[in-house]
């Protein structure tokens, strides 16, 4: 035990590769088919060959070789991950430390339990112990990381965050390797076994520190999301109140003008003048609040959005039983339909052909549930990730809060939300149990 052999490069390569695989399995990927697996296997082979070729390097060459290992660890995140390069480097730092810890701990356990009883290297015996250890360690880590999978998909890693994670990984690597390169340091023990102990515990500390830092990022993201959703709720309610006043004013003006035209029509005999009055009446009829769904809040929102659609060449149709929504709070209704219609209007507004700018809303009762279905045309290339359409905006950190607000509102009433995009159509389906919320 005083003179431990170095970790075989194939086990080190496997540890780093599995660490990459663990995080990639929790993140959005470019390929989920055979191409992704083929690329992953090629990455493992390259990593194994590289670590085998550099296994004998010592001192500064050893550190140079580990820099290359770190670079190869980043490759699958950069090539296979569907996220920014900052996110790729952030998870590369975490995978590098996790892989180092797994390889070091498994090899130490093998050295403790098996090496004293064998005389030479025994690959089958190594595999019999190390592979199950790898499986247990990565399964535990997967279950821990999966708790925050939603945040992992949504985190928009910044440059300072990447630098912080890289600095932590660098310090941990330095502490773990200072005694591994030479036991004649104040931080090392007197044997190779002591040096391995320092390495293992340093990597364990690195895994814990990086995970704690990740939890801090997730909590910060959650606070930001709560604030954004509250702002959206307040904004949609303010928009509803403003629209309510505007619609009431427009309706009063419309009815006044309608009566005035009726008086003028009774006094005018000329055919041309009658034709002129007909045309005026037809033009102002567009501003009458024609949406009569049985729910005052929904009527106001639909009228406001209809006026906007008329001004922008968008065709909005609606078939709604508004009375089915009477159990919902005013703020929740304004947030739900305000966000849904705003998203649909934004989706069709980017279409160059005005004939394709179509939106249809349906609200019906179905066996004790309220069914809400909103359909609109969209870009053919639009696709959905984890219930949210993938954004094309530069500021991806502000993406999806409208739909998240809808999901939060629906979940408050025990309902469900599903979205689907196919063949140039985007569909939002909502199902809510009828009844009051305590």
Brief sketch in words of this structure:
With 438 residues, this protein is of the alpha+beta class. The protein has helices spanning 9-25, 34-53, 59-80, 85-113, 123-146, 149-154, 159-181, 192-267, 271-285, 296-311, 330-349, 401-412, and strands at 315-320, 358-366, 369-377, 384-385, 388-389, 416-422, 425-433.
Q: Fraction of residues in helices?
A: 55-70%
What is the CA-based Rg, rounded? 31 Å
Secondary-structure element string: HHHHHHHHHHEHEEEEHEE
% residues in beta strands: 5-15%
Q: What is the total tally of β strands?
A: 7
Q: Strand order of the main beta sheet, please?
A: 1-2-3-7-6
Q: Please, what is the average pLDDT?
A: 82
Q: What is the makeup of the main sheet?
A: 5 strands, mixed
Describe the structure.
The chain has 438 residues and is an alpha+beta fold. It folds into two domains: 9-225, no CATH class; 289-433, Heat Shock Protein 90, CATH 3.30.565.10. It has helices at residues 9-25, 34-53, 59-80, 85-113, 123-146, 149-154, 159-181, 192-267, 271-285, 296-311, 330-349, 401-412, and strands at residues 315-320, 358-366, 369-377, 384-385, 388-389, 416-422, 425-433. The protein has a five-stranded mixed sheet with strand order 1-2-3-7-6. A two-stranded antiparallel ribbon has the order 4-5. Strand 4 (384-385) and strand 5 (388-389) form a beta hairpin. It is elongated. The model is unreliable at 394-398 (pLDDT under 50).
């Amino acid at each position: 035990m005083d003179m431990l052999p170095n970790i075989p490069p194939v086990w080190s390569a496997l540890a780093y590769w599995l660490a990459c695989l663990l995080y990639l399995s929790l993140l959005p990927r470019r390929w989920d088919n055979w191409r992704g697996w083929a690329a992953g296997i090629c990455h493992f082979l390259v990593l194994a060959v590289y670590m085998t070729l550099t296994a004998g390097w010592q001192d500064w060459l050893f550190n140079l070789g580990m820099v290359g290992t770190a670079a190869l660890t980043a490759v699958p995140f950069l090539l296979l991950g569907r996220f920014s390069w900052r996110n790729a480097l952030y998870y590369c730092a975490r995978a590098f430390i996790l892989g180092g810890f797994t390889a070091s701990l498994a090899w130490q356990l093998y050295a403790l339990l098996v090496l004293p009883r064998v005389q030479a290297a025994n690959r089958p015996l190594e595999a019999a112990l190390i592979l199950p250890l790898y499986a247990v360690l990565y399964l535990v880590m997967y279950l821990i990381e999966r708790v925050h999978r939603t945040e992992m998909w949504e985190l928009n890693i910044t440059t300072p965050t990447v630098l912080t994670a890289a600095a932590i990984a660098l310090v941990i690597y330095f502490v773990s390797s200072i005694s591994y390169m030479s036991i004649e340091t104040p931080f090392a023990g007197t044997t190779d076994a002591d040096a391995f102990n320092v390495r293992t515990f340093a990597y364990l500390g690195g895994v814990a520190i990086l995970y704690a830092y990740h939890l801090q990022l997730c909590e910060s993201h959650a606070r930001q999301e709560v604030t954004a959703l509250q702002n959206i709720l307040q904004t949609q309610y303010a928009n509803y109140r403003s629209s309510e006043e505007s619609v009431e004013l427009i309706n009063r003006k419309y009815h006044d003008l309608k009566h005035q035209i009726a008086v003028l029509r009774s006094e005018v005999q000329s055919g041309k003048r009658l034709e002129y009055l007909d045309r005026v009446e037809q033009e102002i009829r567009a501003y009458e609040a024609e949406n009569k769904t049985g729910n005052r809040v929904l009527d106001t929102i639909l009228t406001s959005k209809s006026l906007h659609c008329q001004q922008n060449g968008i065709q909005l149709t609606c078939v709604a039983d508004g009375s089915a929504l009477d159990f919902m709070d005013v703020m929740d209704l304004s947030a739900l339909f305000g966000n849904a219609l705003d998203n649909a209007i934004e989706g069709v507004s980017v279409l160059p052909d005005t004939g394709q700018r179509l939106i249809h809303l349906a609200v019906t009762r179905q066996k004790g549930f309220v069914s809400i279905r909103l359909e609109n045309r969209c870009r053919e290339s639009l696709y959905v990730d984890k219930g949210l359409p993938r954004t094309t905006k530069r500021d991806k950190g502000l993406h999806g809060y409208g739909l998240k607000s809808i999901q939060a509102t629906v979940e408050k009433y025990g309902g469900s939300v599903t979205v689907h995009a196919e063949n140039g159509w985007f569909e939002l389906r909502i199902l809510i149990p009828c009844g009051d919320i305590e």
